[in-house]
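Submission sheet (multi-component)
Chains listed below:
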Amino acid sequence: MPYTSDKPPLPETPEQLRVRIPGWGVDLDPADRPAVPRERFDPGATGAHWEFPERQPEERPRERSIEHGTLPPVFGTTLPLRGVSGVVRRYAYRRFSEARAAHWLLLMAGDRIDVVESRVLAAVRGRPDDPVAETGVRSEVSHHGWSSRAGAGRADVVHQPMDPVIVAGPWVLGGLAAVVVARRLARRARRR
Amino acid sequence: MRAMVYRGPYRVRVEEKPPPRIEHPNDAIVRVELAAICGSDLHLYHGLMPDTRVGTTFGHEFIGVVEQVGPSVERVQVGDRVMVPFNVYCGSCYYCARGLYANCHNVNPNATAVGGIYGYSHTCGGYDGGQAELVRVPFADVGPAPIPDWMDAEDAVLLTDAVATGYFGAQLGDIVEGDVVVVFGAGPVGLAAAQSAWLMGAGRVIVVDHLEYRLAKARELAHAETYNFAEHRDVVVLLKRVTDHLGADVAIDAVGAEADGSLLQHVTAAKLKLQGGSPVALNWAIDSVRKGGTVSVVGAYGPIFSAVKFGDAVNKGLTLRMNQCHVKRQWPRLFEHVRNGYLRPRDIVTHRFPLEDIAEAYHVFSAKLDGCIKPLVVPGPA
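Outcome: structure written.
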């Protein structure tokens, strides 16, 4: 009890634990722990045979955090910025540091715009998105969706029904908005 | 080549993509033999990580065979079978020179707060990941290591992140002999952390989760005492009660951004993306550890703010320790533990999916169907 000075007794002694748990205590000495001490200056240990790495060619302008003093020498080149999402993301990188909520919220907005752009692009290119195949929802049948949840007392069962709403919701709302706009335009055209 | 691609929240598919190419003299191209889906991949899958671009190939846990090397590569050769740490790192910057490989400053233009990670959004450098037939591996002389002949492929792939991270998390706890250690989360990282806590001399290891099949695994693999938080009104009170009201000496958050246990926290973070993560497990760790205790955080969180109970941490005089794991630094000692049978990473694996079934793999793992704890992805024929 913390109300007195003694530490509460443990259910097993170290000897009992050593018998029951394979390897108990083999890393008891911090010297055997590879993450101790936290920082260990040993530049020769990494395999790097350079003081500063050769620079990877920057084949197109690479967006970067304004907290960087220079473009790091190596970087990913997948999926360069494009479209409206690219404009939003580029603005987030150019204008706001990582310390600003605006930086991350704009990047999140860019992500959502990217999804819309990519859906349209995929359809135009003849490989439209297939919501059934891409959500893997068929595995609800093949991998015991019902019995994995029913009666298991899982805390996540409460909010899992929200997932389809969150995935489909923006599309339903977008569709409804499109219908409303189309009807208003049609009505206006008829009045003329 | 065939590769998994992200198509937006909760959607992935396999597409034909151009194969990766050597873009830097110290690059290698690796043909993936085996990959895994990490619990943190689910944060990307759910659209929680900023700047996750449609078309990104996920996967930061993979092993494979070197297919091509750049002109300055000296330490690996074409044909070598290698395991690749999830960290992309240069080996020579301020941080790498001090062993902080996860904090490398030379590989991620998009952010300074995080290093480079394969297939983990542009916020982590914009590298494609290993849930594909081929992957670009920068700094081939630094990251990849040959897989020892005696090591099982499934052990090797789990050592590229999950098990190394769990082992690292236990070390961050600064465990001394006889410490009471509570681990939140009985996923792959939590199971590895619980097993590792014993190696460091813990006197008692408690694992908390809400999935009974995972708690059963914690009892079986990690010899842990387990509690299902869904069966208790207040898990902090429970943990105080079972520790004579002192609290644990060390608490490890092995859950991260999508923790359950508070509907408000979970929905605002994981569903509405208004927080960088749902810090339920972290708050429980802060509140259930004793005053002066240590909280180790290896669960992944996004870069946006989260509602963490920092006042309690201050008032209790806690030590908070956290980082992404510097994987390769853990390997020599971890290899010994695997070889001696103290850790058996492959026992955590529950499912193996061919790459072509990637959408099912993600759904099963995300929805926690079929007793799923750790799914592997096999690019070739399963």
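Remark: Chain A is about 45% helix and 0% strand.
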